[in-house]
Amino acid sequence: MTSKVGLDQRTVDIIKSTVPVLAEHGEAITKHFYQKMFKDHPELKNIFNQTHQKVGDQPRALADTVYAAAQHIDQLEKILPRVKEIAHKHRSLNVKPEHYPIVGEYLLIAIKDVLGENATDEIIEAWGEAYGLIADVFIQVEDGMYKETARQEGGWTGFRNFSVIKKVRESDVITSFYLKPADGEAVPSYLPGQYLTIKAEIEGDQYDHLRQYSLSDAPGKDYYRISVKREDGLEEKPAGVVSTWLHQEVEEGDVLPVSAPAGDFHLDLSTKRPLVLISGGVGFTPLLSMLNTVKENYPERDIYFIHAARNGSVHALKEEMVLGGHGKTMFIYENPNATDLQEKAYDKGGYIDLEWLKRSVPHESEFYFCGPKGFMKAIYQSLRQWEVPESQIHFEFFGPKGSLEA
């Protein structure tokens, strides 16, 4: 996976010379790219999350990916982990090889439009060649994923209809949905931590909405479970179209199109190190899948589950998080309510901080965490300050990848 087979040194040098320009103008280029592509190809709105477009997450994520590709155009193997992560998303969204030429065409148009006369014919030609190479890498990786998914017992590609067999209100804002294949066939297994993609076909909306939700139970059941937070919206963030629809409109007996489990954030079962799972808000969902997997299959492993919530009224699936005899569960409530105080229903008020973490869990552990970006940033920086090796730090973003650096 190197550019030696596809790009000559002159092209590599031109691409690398554009790295400072991408650092400055990358997000402007990707915003323009999405606007123009969606205008000319509105059918692609059936694939891309329009909420991420509105708040700017997707353009930023694409800009970061393009920048990384330019930096490492002569050693693309360095970005292979990022490629695989994106490829999981693409496979779950049913992105196909025929979509790549469209993206390439509009990316080059955006570079030329934003950079103007600085985007010389030489630069555009070099980026055309580079994009072709990068697209081939993605297509090959995704092709392998499609084939692997289809080979599984009960496996499928595209979308498969699942019936909602149970809908359970877990807290004021979180509801679980239990899903079984409508065709009665097998439910493929998955890795604890992976997610499903739900296709929401909402009456009155012109385009479909595709959303990823982590599987919140251990694999090996005859159903899938997702636990969805209703996003009510804030000034800086619109309400969740799909989460609101699931909570308010979808009922037991309804059918949802679902793509097969995907995702590169999953529990490593090859190590016997102590396991520390740290979640904030609805970020518990992939970690609860990991927790249940260890409880059911590896009871000898030391495990610590730390969950942070605003208070008990929004704390979902609390009983399931309790480890009992072979581990330790700790709850941190930012603003405990009267019932929490009366029942002493939590272990710490306020936030997770490094000194508390040092007293509570072993340094040599494998750390997995998920939650809101600010929460994850604080946990990541605490672990690095504690000098936990990067190889023992694992995390999942909900939505496009962001940076946890200071």
Automatic annotation (TrEMBL):
Heme b binds at H90. It comes from the Bacteria. The keyword Ubl conjugation does not apply. It catalyses: 2 nitric oxide + NADPH + 2 O2 = 2 nitrate + NADP(+) + H(+); 2 nitric oxide + NADH + 2 O2 = 2 nitrate + NAD(+) + H(+). Residues 154-406 are annotated as: Reductase. Residues 157-268 form the FAD-binding FR-type domain. InterPro entries: Cbr1-like_FAD-bd_dom (IPR008333), FAD-bd_FR_type (IPR017927), Flavoprot_Pyr_Nucl_cyt_Rdtase (IPR001709), FNR_nucleotide-bd (IPR039261), Globin (IPR000971), Globin-like_sf (IPR009050), Globin/Proto (IPR012292), Hmp (IPR023950). Binds 1 heme b (iron(II)-protoporphyrin IX) group per subunit. Its cofactor is heme b; FAD. FAD binds at Y195, R211, Q212, Y213, S214, F397, F398, G399, P400. Residues 6-143 form the Globin domain. The record marks K89, E396 as: Influences the redox potential of the prosthetic heme and FAD groups. The record marks Y34 as: Involved in heme-bound ligand stabilization and O-O bond activation. Signal peptide: none annotated. It is an enzyme of class 1 (oxidoreductase). Its EC number is 1.14.12.17. GO terms for biological process: cellular response to nitrosative stress; nitric oxide catabolic process; response to toxic substance. Consists of two distinct domains; an N-terminal heme-containing oxygen-binding domain and a C-terminal reductase domain with binding sites for FAD and NAD(P)H. Is involved in NO detoxification in an aerobic process, termed nitric oxide dioxygenase (NOD) reaction that utilizes O(2) and NAD(P)H to convert NO to nitrate, which protects the bacterium from various noxious nitrogen compounds. Therefore, plays a central role in the inducible response to nitrosative stress. Belongs to the globin family. Two-domain flavohemoproteins subfamily. In the C-terminal section; belongs to the flavoprotein pyridine nucleotide cytochrome reductase family. This is Flavohemoprotein.
